[in-house]
Amino acid sequence: MKTETLLVVSLSLSADVLGLHVGDVSFCSDVVRRKEWGALHPKSKINTRPVSNVILHHSLGPTCITEPTCRSIVRTTQLQHIKIKGWDDIGYNFLVSENGQVFEGRGWGVEAAAVMGLTDRAVHIAIIGSFNHRTPADAAMVAVSRLIQCGMGLGKVHEDYKISAHRDVEPTACPGHKLYALIRGWNRYVKTP
Ligand SMILES: [Zn+2]
């Protein structure tokens, strides 16, 4: 009986965790802000209007399940994006870890790195890890869902938003084969945002 219950919960999360929700600013307090993870200042930033698209990525690096390790990965990611890729800041608007924590990247209302695609009308969320061979833990997907609810509550994400993957808008394997297969099963998914 217990196993069955767990299975149902797991299936519902995988199938449609991002399909049914409304704005809820109470989830905004869950976000680990830039100053909390030790972000460098952005070199510049471009503001955007509220968006109708959510684009999902994987970070294509190690995963993390403890806050100190996740903060370290987020700091390292920002350094790589600024020093190696030459971007103005960490590329993503937000990053989500498999223990369900959300880290503020560029944040709401700011264009993501240009190579992410659709930067003037999408919020870009990366799940920390590599998802070619496995799907992210459900906690990460719940955190993505709550983050979007936060964005809707703040008026930064339109209620009729759609979800796509990075590979739908740019030539890349991101967000990994397994995560891509998962995203494509969601009600909010569109291949051509
Ligand atoms: Zn990507």
Automatic annotation (TrEMBL):
Residue ranges of every copy of the Peptidoglycan recognition protein family domain listed in the record: 29-170
Molecular function, one GO term: N-acetylmuramoyl-L-alanine amidase activity
Keyword line: Immunity, Innate immunity, Signal
Residues spanning the signal sequence: 1-19
Pfam families: Amidase_2
Example of a GO biological process term: peptidoglycan catabolic process
SMART domains: Ami_2, PGRP
Domain N-acetylmuramoyl-L-alanine amidase: 41-176
Family: Belongs to the N-acetylmuramoyl-L-alanine amidase 2 family.
PANTHER family: PEPTIDOGLYCAN RECOGNITION PROTEIN, PEPTIDOGLYCAN-RECOGNITION PROTEIN LC-RELATED
Name of the protein: Peptidoglycan recognition protein 1
Gene (name only): LOC100900310
